Amino acid sequence: MPIKGLSDTFRLPRAGIIRLGTRKKTDKPCPADCKKDKKCRLCLGTGFFQRPKEEEFFVCPDIVKETYGEQPKELVIMFPVENELILFPQWYKMYGRDTLLCRGDGIEGTYWDFDKGDFMKRECPCPFLEKKKCKGVGVLQFLLPEIKEAVG
Can you give the residue ranges of every domain in the chain? Predict the structure, then answer.
């Protein structure tokens, strides 16, 4: 008998991340005072603030580049299930330096309470959304059938 609640949520395995752009280094020093910590999400360890830069191609892991080339503009994808909650999960999310601190669905959120050292429930949206410390995030999940390692 399986453990109750452990396998109730189906998730697709993740072999890598395909991005729509890169990050471009600016002349502005990192506002996080991270001392060039490689885990800093604002400067990626360079000490300078990084801005998103949209590209004309998909930014892919090496395993995808081996099949589609260095700068692919099209990918053959497959959706293995019809459930949109699995294919395109969407949440309000707030991150710390490198950690998810809060995740909500617009009605209820779960956040890390530093004082209690545990996750707690709260109303969503909360004041962090108004302060733009939290934002809506969606991740499209799919399989790449032309890449053996990506389909299992």
Answer: 16-75, 78-152
Q: Are 8 and 2 in contact (CB under 8 A)?
A: no
Q: Residue 68 and residue 89: Cα distance in Å, rounded?
A: 26
Residues 6+ apart with CB under 8 A from 130: none
pLDDT digit string (tens) for 41-71? 677 777 787 888 899 999 999 989 999 999 9
* Total-model pTM: 0.69
The CA–CA distances, whole Å, from 26 to 35, 49, 97, 98, 143 equal: 16, 6, 19, 20, 35
Q: Compute the 3-state secondary structure of the chain and give helix, strand, coil in percent, each to the nearest 5.
A: 10, 35, 55
Write out the two tokens for 68.
Answer: 């589609």
Calculate Rg over the CA atoms of the chain: 19
Q: How far is CA 100 from CA 9, 13, 55, 127, in A?
A: 19, 19, 26, 17
